[in-house]
Amino acid sequence: MLLTVLGCSGSVPGPNAPASGYLLEAEGFALGLELGTGTFAALQAIRDPFLLDGLLFSHLHADHCADFAALTTFLRYHPRPTRDPRANRLAVYAPSEAPSRFVNAYATDEADRAVTDLSDVFDFRPLTTGKFHIGPFDVVVAPAAHPCESFSFRVAHGGRSLVYTGDTGVCGTLTELAHGADVIMSEASWTHGSVAVPDLHLSGREAGELAATAGAGRLLVTHVPPWTDRDAVLAEARTAFPGPVEAVEQGMVYEL
Ligand SMILES: [Zn+2]
Ligand SMILES: [Zn+2]
User: Fold this and answer.
1) Residues 45-80 pLDDT 10s
2) What CATH class does 2-255 carry?
3) 226 C-alpha vs ligand 1 centroid, how far in Å?
4) Which DSSP symbol is given to 118?
5) 26 CA to middle of ligand 2, Å?
6) Distance 168 CA to ligand 2 centre (A)
C-alpha cells in the first residue's frame, strides 16, 4: 500500500499544506481518502483525476470534502476526458448526506439545486459500520466521536493495515479498530488540556495513547491546524507512544 499526502493541515488549509486529503494505492487501484480544501490542486499535480477508482470520506466537514465541487466540475466539463465519466461513474463512499451536501456545495441557487443531480458522474454509496471491500482493499468502518456523522477506517492490503482516525475524540470503537494496526494515521488537533471539548478532536497525547494501546508499529500524526504548535503535539505523542512517531508532510509518499 502506498499512501500519498495531498493535504494534512487540520481544520483549514495552512501556509504549507492544503486541508485533509490522501491517496491510497495498491495493485494499480487509486483510492482518494478525503478531498479537503486545496487538495484537488495537489491531486492533479500527481495523478489524472479521471483515473481515480474510488473516493472515501470520513465525514463532510469542509476541510475534508470541500474540493469535491472542483472534482465535479473537472469530471463534467473537461473537454478531453481520459475516460467517459458517464460510463465509468466514480464510486464515492461517504456518509449518507453526501449527495445532498455536495449538490448544495455545487449548485448556485434553489432552482439550480432542484435540477442538479450528481449521479451522472458519481455513484454514491452510503457508509455503514462494518466490513467491506473497495477494489483490493479490505475496509473496516467504525463510528467516530465527532459532531456529525463521522467514521474512522481500517484499511488492509497484502497483510498490512492502516488505521485512519478521521476527526474524532477519544472513543472505544476507535481503540478497538486500531488494535494491532501496522500504521495509525491519527489526527491531533491540539495539545492536551488546551481545549476542553469532548467528542471533537484528539490531542497529541491522546494520539500517542491510541497508538500505545493498539500496540501499533508506527504513528503518523496529521490534521494539526496552523494555530497549533506541531512540535508540542509531536512531543506529547512521543511521550505516550514508544514507537516511531512522525508528522506527515505535504507531498510525502509512505510505503505502508
Ligand atoms: Zn477536520
Ligand atoms: Zn471534522
Assistant:
1) 999 999 999 999 999 999 999 999 999 999 999 999
2) alpha beta
3) 12
4) G
5) 27
6) 8
